Please model this.
Amino acid sequence: MNYWDEDVYALVGRKWSEENIIAGYVRVKGRSPKDLEKLEEQKEVMRQFCTRRGIALERVYEDCAPGTDYSAARRPGLHELMQDILNNKVQALVVDRVDRLSRVGQEMWTLWFKYNKCDLVVMNPVLEDPYYQEEQSGDLATLIQRAGLDRSGDLLEKGTAPYPKTKGVDSPAGDQDTN
Model:
């Protein structure tokens, strides 16, 4: 029997698109020679991963910016990827680790892909490379700074609240600012 592609996609609940590609996404923290070397390494590892599995990787989106920066100016590849997913142009995305997309909210990314009918393929769920461990440390330090927390202090010292107080707002522990 012969079937039309459009009919098969209709049966599985997906809209047929000639641009329904399998793509990859790579990211490094900056544009130093070491960063650019790691970017090329990510792309090569991804190509090998896909080739060994018979996956036709048709496009790789890339960015050179921290995993905590989501601006279109710093991460145009991520924004273009998101638009292509929303427009049903990408059926599956391959990433080295979910932290290539974002340092935080990884569960939300997984759901976002699921809700937009794009499969997420994570090649390497474990962070072992010292380069990426250092990158992660830097991103976490940035997040702590943005939150206004002092890394050198112990938030749980005797006599202090476990969370910084925000005027008029309950903390997770139920404490209120009484000033």
Q: What stands out?
A: Confidence is low (pLDDT under 50) at residues 158-163, 169-179. The chain has two domains: 17-130, 143-179. The CA atoms of residues 141 and 151 lie 8 Å apart.
